[in-house]
Amino acid sequence: MNYDGLSVAPHLDDDRLRQIRRLTEVSRILTSELSVDDVLALAVSQSAALFGARQSVLMCSDDSGRWSLQASHGIDTPNIDQPANDHDEPLDAQLAGLLGVALDNLLAVPLVVSGKVFGILGVILNKSTSNPDADEWCLSAFADQVAVALEKSRLDQAAAFRERLLGIVGHDLRNPLQAIQMTAMALSYKYGNNEDVSSLAQRIAHNSEQMGIMIAQLLDFTRSRLGGGIELGPEPMDLTSATRQAISNLSAAYPHATFETSLVGSVTGEWDRQRIEQVIYNLIGNAVQHGDTLKPIGVAVDQDQGNAALRVHNFGTAITAEAQRELFSPFRRTHQARSADSKGLGLGLYIANEIVVAHGGAINVRSSDRDGTEFSVRLPVSGVHATSIFRPL
Question: Model pTM?
Answer without folding.
Answer: 0.53
